[in-house]
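Throughout this review, each integer encodes one residue's backbone shape. One record appears below.

===
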Amino acid sequence: MPRVAVIAALAVPVGAAAALVAVGLLKLIALFTNLCFHGRFSFAESTPATTTHWWLVLFMPVVGGLVIGLMARYGSEKIRGHGMPEAIESILVGGSKVQPRIAVLKPVSSAVSIGTGGPFGAEGPIIMTGGAVGSILAQFLRVTTDERKTLLVAGSAAGMAATFNAPLAAILLAVELLLFEWRPRSYLPVAVGAVTATLVRGPILGTEPLFAGAQVPDRLPLSAYGLCVVAGIGAGLLALVATWLVYFSEDLFAKLPFHWMWWPAIGGAVIGVGGLVEPRALGVGYDVIGQLLTGRAGVGLIIGILVVKTLIWGLSLGSGTSGGVLAPMFMIGGALGAAEGLVFPAVSPGFWALVSLAGVLGGVMRSPLTGIVFCLELTHEVNALVPMVITASSAYLLSVIVLKRSVLTEKIARRGLHLTREYSVDPLEVHLVRGLAPAPAATLHADMGIDTAAARVAAGTDEDPDTGVQLLYPVLDRTGLLSGVVTRSRLLGAGPDDIRPLSALAQPPVVAHPDETLRTVANRMAAHHVTRVVVTPRDEPGRVDGILSLGQLLEARRVDLHEEQHVERVFRRRREPAGVR
């Protein structure tokens, strides 16, 4: 069975386990919320805003921050933050290895953070926790680093899909943020994990969309599409403010003269003060998101969420507490759109909140496709597809122009790592060996003496396209077919008095065929630690057509660079002959 099928099969239990962990995290958040704000042991959905004790709103987030600080210091520092940068870092530099204790500490710390009033989402922690499930399974198996990465990402996508009942958005998030590739070997297991998690989630949490009821009509006035550009620009500006606020806060906390263990408690104090102003800004706030997306939110709630939620989320997240970014962005984006809906022409209840939500996701996460599909799966409002594309793309454009990195990748950069979010086809993948002109190769014969061959090579009459001197020589047998290769340095190093036949010095050849891609050849060079290969026809493996060098492989990249940077006009306007009017 091909390896991809094996990894895809392993993604089934990973997806199921991640779904159960996601459900468990949601229940744990509800339990802590009920215990901390209502004094009851219950797993039913609850919100801090309905408590009758103002002092709980003020001080409970501080208590939660103290607990998280202790867990981070004496458990694992990896639980700090919103989860996605940590998952990305484990992929980039950690060999996709996640410690087993993270699978326990991360969801518990997030449940404490959100359950004590933290204005965060559950998705970031479940991305890290689901990834830990996949990584831990892979660490018990004999797999490659890439396969371990795939199972990690499959677990992350599965947790995401189970949390929001959004399998396609989870897959896109994996592609845009975690996989760093689009290949069958990675896509298929991730898709299997996300679908499995969605199927497991259904009987437990239901299959209905989380935020139904926007009721977007199938025909919109043209003016609405134009205003979607305005909404996108507004969402992009909000994304800039939110991103700046998070890292401004992080920089402020880094200047404090005491241990980072105490920072989450200070962030909790900020949350508590904000909760006194607008209690509904605390917690995950799915009920508030539902009100915003169905047009049932009043002006006071809209302004309160837009201002208070943005401030307490950004400032407290910079303290290093545990919690995700998506749910807060849903609420803040929805509030922005609802505020715009107060002055924009009415389309349907919650229409402007919905498209602005997509815009904020496109701007904050720099993942417009994920933002659009997320909104579709959260609401099932297909009629809003085109407006969401316009809004998310406008916000994405503004974010790309103004910001170097997103809120998710800035932390990666601050840790000294480089992460690209631009994906393109490798030019080596679209060029074949036959498209190049391999250098004519001067050959040597196997029965020639090493001293004779060395004398000929020392004369330096054979040319190489890169160095001017041929560095690799094919060695032919008595029938004129390729039997090995010898390098110039190896031959000259043998000495002028070595009378052994050249076959004693020759090594097995590394070959390339004319119908192979340059990427295949480059990988082969890397695997064999060589910079030159012999080109032979596939149907005549003993015939030498030339030598292909590493420098020639770069020709494909030079072509790609020329196509990217060279400016030209293909069609020119005909000039009228002199004297003709």
About this structure: The domain at 3-205 is CATH 1.10.3080.10 (Clc chloride channel).
